[in-house]
Amino acid sequence: MIEQSKPKLLRKTIKAGELMNQVMSDYFYGVNEAATTGKQKVAWCTSVGPAELLRALGFAVHFPENHGALLGATRMATDLIPGANAIGYSPDICSYLTADIGAYLKGVTPLAKAYPGIQSVPKPDVLVYSTNQCRDVQDWFGWYSRELGIPSIGIKSPRNLNEVGAAPIEDVSQQIQALVPPLEAISGNKLDLDRLRETVALSKECTELWKQVLETAKAIPAPLTFFDGTIHMGPAVVLRGTQVAVDYYKVLLAELQQNVRDGAGAVEGEKVRLYWDGMPVWGRLRQHSEHFLQLRTNVVASTYCSSWIFPAFDEKDPFRSMAQAYLELFIVRSDEYKEQYMKRMIEEFRIDGIIYHDAKTCPNNSNSRYGLPKRLETATGVPSLVLSGDLNDLRCISDEQTKTNIEAFIEQIEEGK
Amino acid sequence: MSKPVYVGLDIGSSRTKVAVLDADRQLLGYAIKKSGTDFSVTAGICLDASLEMAGATRQDIANAVSTGYGKSNVEFVTTESKTEIGCLANWGRHNVSGIITLIDIGGQDNKIVKLDQEGRRSSFKMNRKCAAGTGAFLEEMSYRLDVPLEDMDGLARASKEMVKLGSYCTVFSATEVLENIRNGKKVTDIVKGLFYSVIKRVLEMDLPTEKVVMTGGVVAHNAYIVEMAAEMLGRPVIRPEYPQLAGAMGAAIYAINEKGDAGSADPNRLISEGELQ
Ligand code: SF4
Fold first, then answer.
1. Phi/psi of residue A223, nearest 5 degrees
2. Which chain B residue has its CA at the smallest distance from A388's CA?
3. Contact A352, A179 (CB under 8 A)
4. Which residue among B63, B77, B83 sits closest to A407, beta carbon to beta carbon?
5. In whole angstroms, what is the distance from residue B43 CA to residue B71 CA?
């Protein structure tokens, strides 16, 4: 008895992707030019560090975490991580950090391959961090600071907040303001408050549009997957506070809204809707996306992509609103808050199941370790699955186990429907 | 003309198991063989052996479903596959009534699957990245201790005073075992300690319900492990007649159900109390 192989399901491609590639390319070439010609000073910034301030001061901004993700997505990371391990940075700490430092030690970057003419990551004049997400970023920048002999300054953020009250906002706001004099000195520019307001306003607009983009996936079928989201969030990550990012999301949003009106889902015959908590597995993005597609499953919402939504930005009160925005992030919050947040997401996106990615090297972005999955399961009845893996270090991953776990989880959801 | 048969092929990374069932879910034939490196060849051999035992031929196959690590390597029989967790649950649903916890200890991994009152999966867990709590752990230790794998059950049973091993990790455990040998501990006591370690690793994965069923290759070859688990849990544990075939039989039941049989739980097929350990 021989049966025919099943035809492969197709993924709907997002047309705006081409424009996004152009936007990202312009961005990388722009920072590279700043660094190689000295036309503009270069600051490195953590993903939710004070990018608005840096831009207002005229810095070209590079985001090492974005570079870390590129190292992961190009599957260069796993070979580079041991280089950092060998100089004393443990394989158990952030694999963005170890991959990025490993790449520096070897003198390689995926940017060189993707963008002819770029030789290396842009050489920084200053490193600016916020520990709102983790301590690893401070240690990461600390290494470059010693290596390159440039200052590493930043915000030591409160963490694990239930409510974001006046006191922590005041604290962080003061810390951001304290960064102004040293950054003015390095950039050679005086801070123009109107410019800062403008940048904050653009960040707010970008974030608003990004939120609407993600919310299109509330529709059934959803026009967007988590995997698309991790790619299309590029401009929100590296170009927050610029008109280019705002313009891009207007285009993307229009396309997705049209797809919703047309009933065109990203996943052909969408049957199961999942929520993804934690980091993506960058080196397996395509495989995971394809695997879910063939299972007629769409990962329609995620903590990760939603982390670039900052409703608090307010140009009328730039410093305090930046502080509030940087503190309201999911990763900065308590488990009580996270539980409530996810409950809301489950309802709004009509989620059938939650996948928690327990990333070996990022406890900060792994939310399955303190009983949250069981508590949420009890509260909502929505089943969950914990996947052991990592964002960048593919040595921590068993593809076969991941595959079996995901398939069994979807079988379980379908049987329960 | 012979009757149609339903086949379940469980292509594990360590062993290939094939079960042939009739439409009433009765086991007619089966075969178990080391999977080796060519999964389809092994599957073919097991398929023919189990069909022969069932008095059937490949022409009699009404439907077949595959599962396990090599489930996509048997396209010559079927392209329909289910996960090993799904198949284990499906077997449990049709063979044991009530809320149950299925604990499967295989060659390379272990799984815990919980079923609710209606036989639906309420949760499952697979072991994580290491060999702890799997057959691979016992295989490695049998090599270290220089005792054949098949002797381990008898040795553990003969132990008077178990040696407790503390480590999670197979490599660390090997060191602990060597340490114990150097200290003059008896092999029987060490082997019992190894069994204890396997069960403990598995039971640590989840909270088992009142009713527990154990399956898988390790359970099939080491009945004493089930007795020890029952003692540790403080209640009887069910060991079915063919612990190693649960996945293959679950796959075959899927094959039956896909052909139109509603396939709800069958109270007449409940495992008898006599099989409680
Ligand atoms: S949050 Fe996690 S992935 Fe991001 S920089 Fe910190 S440790 Fe690395």
1. -85, 0
2. B128
3. no
4. B83
5. 10
Element spanning A40, H or E:
none
Instruction: Please give the ipTM for the structure prediction.
Output: 0.83
Instruction: Tell me the residue length of chain A.
Output: 417
Structure tokens of A136?
């690893």
Closest residue by Cα to residue B216 from B251, B240, B243, B250: B243
**What are the tokens at A208?**
């608003």
Residue B90 lies in a domain: no
* Paired sense of beta strands B211-215 and B100-105, if any: parallel
Give chain B's mean pLDDT: 88
Cβ of residue A362 lying under 6 Å from some atom of ligand 1: yes
Q: Do residues B73 and B140 share a domain?
A: no
Q: Is A282 in the pocket of ligand 1 (CB under 6 A)?
A: no
Q: Which of B126, B102, B125, B105 is nearest to B115 (CA)?
A: B102
Tokens representing residue B192 in the block: 């019992």
Does B113 map to a domain?
no
According to DSSP H, which parts of A38-122 are helical? 51-56, 64-73, 77-86, 95-106, 110-114
Instruction: Round to whole Å and give the CA distance between B111 and A118.
Output: 49
Q: Quick check: is B234 in a domain?
A: no
- Name the residue range of residue B256's domain: 5-85+244-275
Q: How far is CA B5 from its chain centroid?
A: 23
For residue A382, what is the enclosing H or E element?
A: none
Q: Would you say the pTM of this structure is higher than 0.80?
A: yes
E strand intervals along A134-197: 152-155
Distance (Å, rounded) from C-alpha A192 to C-alpha B228? 74
Report whether pLDDT(A1) > 60: no
Helix axes A318-327, A166-187, angle to 10 degrees: 110
Look-up of token digits 């060191």 = B175
CATH assignment of the domain containing B175? 3.30.420.40
Q: Which mutation among A326, A365, A366, A367 tests ligand 1's pocket best, with the greatest number of atoms within 8 A of CB?
A: A365
Q: A136-181, pLDDT tens digit by residue?
A: 999 999 999 999 999 999 999 999 999 999 999 999 999 999 999 9
